């Protein structure tokens, strides 16, 4: 689950709604944070989604960010897009694996109903990596066609690549792929080991010390291309020199509907419920901005590899 559908860069805080539309997905990602591969019954009702939209209409929210699971798998997905438009929300952001967007007619319908930004998951530069993670043949091919379809319609595309044990050596080449596709914004995310990722913890969870050089190389490739880049979920001391690329949550506030729960400030919830700081963080000059480390990672590996940002090498 990620709320960061926006790449807004204004000096003022941008207020958005974020809605977890479904627990179901047509991929079976080995690190799915909401455990979609194991979901047998969807817990997200249309009535609750519509009431959330109605309750917040006219209260200054600049748009609605839709995610799941895979939001496009809902039978009433287009009806929900219509409701968002009719309630007067200025824009829609869709987080998606883009498989259904590989159909040109579906891509056009989404754009016509107000989706202006598509956040597409790309976890491999080739099918051998991406499709192994999603456990669905041709899922990378579908994602690439989906990106091309919505770009041809004039939509904004942001890709998201989650760094895992299954793909971290491929990360620089993933960046080359999405740059060549002409996407507008690239996001690289640290793995959050909940859901299916927790079940597959040791198969999917990389050590930060192992992935750091690959993340740095990936960043250099994106920066050289001139494409907008953000990093999400990384402790600052694991991305030394690239801290300025971290998503600025002070400028992006998301009120989220997650199943039947409303999170008034998604990032505040993540800071208090999902991430921790430890003794290496004391005195760190980045302490105020850094969100810390996911709890599950520390439970498994401890604090030995972390040092204050700029404070030396890790073990």
Automatic annotation (TrEMBL):
GO MF: catalytic activity; iron-sulfur cluster binding; metal ion binding
Top-level taxon: Bacteria
Pfam families: Radical_SAM (PF04055)
Key words of the record: Iron, Iron-sulfur, Metal-binding, S-adenosyl-L-methionine
Domain Radical SAM core: 9-235
Stored InterPro entries: Aldolase_TIM, Elp3/MiaA/NifB-like_rSAM, Radical_SAM_PqqE_MftC-like, rSAM, rSAM_sf
Annotated PROSITE patterns: RADICAL_SAM
CDD domains in UniProt: Radical_SAM
Gene3D superfamilies assigned: Aldolase class I (3.20.20.70)
Protein name: Radical SAM core domain-containing protein
Species this chain originates from: Virgisporangium ochraceum
């Amino acid at each position: 689950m990620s709320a960061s559908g926006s790449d807004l860069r204004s000096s003022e805080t941008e207020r958005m709604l974020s809605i977890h539309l479904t627990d179901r997905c047509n991929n079976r990602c080995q690190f799915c944070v909401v455990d979609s591969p194991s979901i047998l019954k969807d817990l997200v009702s249309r009535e609750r989604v519509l009431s959330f939209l109605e309750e917040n209409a006219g209260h200054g929210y600049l748009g609605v960010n839709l995610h799941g699971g895979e939001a496009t798998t809902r039978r009433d997905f287009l009806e929900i897009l219509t409701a968002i438009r009719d309630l007067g929300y200025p824009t829609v952001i869709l987080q998606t694996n883009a498989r259904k967007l590989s159909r040109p007619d579906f891509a056009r319908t989404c754009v016509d109903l107000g989706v202006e930004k598509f956040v597409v998951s790309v976890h491999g530069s080739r099918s051998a990596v991406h499709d192994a993670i999603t456990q669905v043949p041709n899922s990378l091919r579908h994602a690439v066609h989906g990106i091309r379809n919505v770009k041809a319609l004039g939509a904004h595309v942001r890709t998201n690549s989650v760094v895992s044990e299954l793909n971290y050596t491929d990360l620089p080449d993933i960046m080359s792929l999405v740059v060549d596709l002409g996407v507008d914004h690239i996001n690289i995310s640290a793995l959050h080991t909940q859901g299916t990722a927790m079940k597959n913890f040791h198969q999917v969870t990389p050590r930060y010390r192992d992935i750091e050089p690959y993340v740095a190389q990936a960043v250099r490739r994106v920066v050289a291309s001139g494409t907008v880049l953000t990093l999400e979920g990384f402790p600052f001391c694991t991305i030394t020199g690239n801290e300025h690329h971290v998503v600025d949550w002070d400028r992006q506030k998301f009120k989220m509907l997650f199943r039947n729960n409303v999170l008034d400030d998604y990032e505040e919830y993540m800071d208090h419920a999902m991430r921790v700081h430890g003794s290496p963080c004391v005195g760190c000059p980045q302490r105020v901005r850094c969100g810390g480390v996911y709890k599950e990672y520390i439970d498994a590996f401890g604090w030995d590899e972390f040092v204050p940002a700029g404070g030396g090498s890790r073990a």
